[in-house]
Amino acid sequence: MPKPLARFLTERYHAVDFSLLLPLLARLPMPLAYLLGVFRGWLHARLSIDWRTIAFGADLHRLTSASFRQILPDSPEENIASLVRKRYMAQAREEFEAHLVMADRIDGLKCSFIPGEEVLTRRAGGRGLVLLTPHFGSFFLGYAFLCRLGLCCNGMSSSITNDLRVIPEVQRYYFRKYRALEPKMNGGRILDQEKGMKPFYAMLQRGEMLLVLADLPASPTGVAMQANFLGARRVMAGGALRMARQTDSDIGSYVCRHVGNGEYRLEFGPFCSCHDEKALDSIYHFFSDKIVETPGCWWGADLLQVLPAIGVTMERGAEETNVASLRTNLLSDVRP
Q: What is the pLDDT of residues 261-319, one digit of tens each?
């Protein structure tokens, strides 16, 4: 099939999928909805369907395969291929779960907190909390479960989904997804970081919680940090650490996974002082363990290819570093 025709058909499928099929799926009886959601995930895995591939031409299949080979260097190719399929299915499930939030159907879903919700509710001192999680499993639905605990929850989003190359149906999906969660956030909001960082600092200064995705690369003009992640010391976006330090907020972590129809398990990782030099390394060690445990749940695995490993001793504590000062190091210290 000619590439222009294939692209046109994929875009049309995506438009119908996000505007009609997913909303319909989210209104079916739950057992049937989850069953058909699995089939949708299988189809997306079979066809390597992802909105970023359509919008930006990113070869996520190839990038994800490369990441899984890095994480599991001794794994046979058939296992890598299986993990890539699971990655597409994990993202498809996350999109379905977001539509359950939009349809206001999550009250009947069950979530167990490991080790227990008191990890979050018994924090002392009234300080803010920067809560980190990767593009892993059911992180968005997990945050909805955290909102049930009565804390004021906030989120940081990105305006990349408003790029003109992103089809309107996907743009509307992200807007409605965030707006649907906000009434459950106990007074909190989800704001685009590109519109300014002052509101996020104010949230933390009021002692509120702010969700930040943990597996993103540093922007060219932003702040970077270093942490030990998946077998190497890596450079990644450092805004979360800077906000925590400047507001004297704590840093915490979690992952959330689907364990059965309508049932989820949310696991808390380390909760640390922002001034603890080992805080980020302990949090990213937790993320690394969870990703290696179930690699196919990491539907952001392609991002590993833009989180460069640098030649810094692994035992060194994580630190915040200005991007400009890193560039010189990267020229000589990036590992092949």
A: 899 999 999 999 998 888 999 999 999 999 999 999 999 999 999 998 885 433 333 44
- Enumerate the β-bridge partners of residue 223: 322
d(CA 26, CA 24): 5
CA 179 from centroid of its chain's CA atoms: 18
Cβ atoms of 275 and 111 closer than 8 Å: no
Which amino acid makes up residue 317?
A: G
Find tokens 């993202």 and name the residue: 91
Q: How many CA atoms lie within 13 A of 207 on its CB side?
A: 8
Q: Give me the count of residues in the chain.
A: 336
Single-letter amino acid code for the residue at 178: Y
pTM for the full model?
0.89
Quickly count: other Cβ atoms within 10 Å of residue 281's Cβ.
Answer: 22
Q: Tell me the pLDDT tens digit for each residue of 177-205.
A: 999 999 999 999 999 998 999 999 999 99
The set of long-range contacts for 113-121, using a CB threshold of 8 Å and a minimum separation of 24, is 113/145, 113/266, 113/268, 114/265, 114/266, 114/267, 114/268, 115/268, 117/149, 119/268, 119/271, 120/146, 120/149, 120/151, 120/252, 120/268, 121/149, 121/150, 121/151
CB-count burial class (<10 Å; 0-12, 13-18, 19+) for 91: buried
Helix axes 198-205, 239-247, angle to 10 degrees: 50
Helix (H) or strand (E) run with residue 258 in it: strand 250-260
